Amino acid sequence: MAQYLNAATFLELARAAQTRATAPCTCTKTPLDGWQSQPLSLDEAQFEEIGTLLPEDDPEPTFSEYLPDKTTYWSADAPIAPRYFPYNRCAVWQCSSCRRLYLRYVEGGGYFVDRRIRAVRAELIEDVPLPE
């Protein structure tokens, strides 16, 4: 299993990645600011998994979502809240070329599986505690 990244470590990695990732790259051909089904054009070999937001000691993380200010799951400006769904089930991937970070997870339903991806923007990361 990939190394668990707590919110502080994840935010630090995201800030560093944003500082380095200023040039255009093939990984940015399709806008991925909000959740998207993974484009077929995305070159899987260009990415490396660097961590996970799924804690080892949490066998069934919450399905509760954190969507303040009328944001939706699909919104480009929706907060990235690592303790909430779907982020608590995400792997953190990095483009080996430009060093940008992406979140990826598999959405599963009764008759389908959808690999989803979202670009990480450090300013959207919020470490919001779960309700008691």
Quick structural summary:
This protein is α+β, with helices and mostly antiparallel strands and about 130 residues long. About 10% of the residues lie in helices and about 20% in strands. The longest helix is centred in the N-terminal third of the chain and has 14 residues, at about 5-20.
Tally of individual helices = 1
Q: Tell me the helix content.
A: 10-25%
Strand order of the largest sheet: 1-5-4-3-2
Label the overall shape.
Answer: globular
Mean pLDDT: 92
Strand content: 15-25%
Keywords:
5-stranded antiparallel sheet; 11% helix; single chain; alpha+beta; 132 residues
Word description of this protein:
The structure is a single chain. By secondary structure, the protein is α+β, with helices and mostly antiparallel strands. The protein has one domain. The chain contains 1 helix and 5 strands; from the N terminus they run αβββββ. The protein has one helix spanning 7-20, and strands spanning 36-37, 47-52, 91-95, 101-108, 113-119. The chain has a 5-stranded antiparallel β-sheet. The mean pLDDT is 92.
Secondary-structure blueprint:
Layout: H1 7-20, E1 36-37, E2 47-52, E3 91-95, E4 101-108, E5 113-119
Antiparallel strand pairs: 1-5, 2-3, 3-4, 4-5
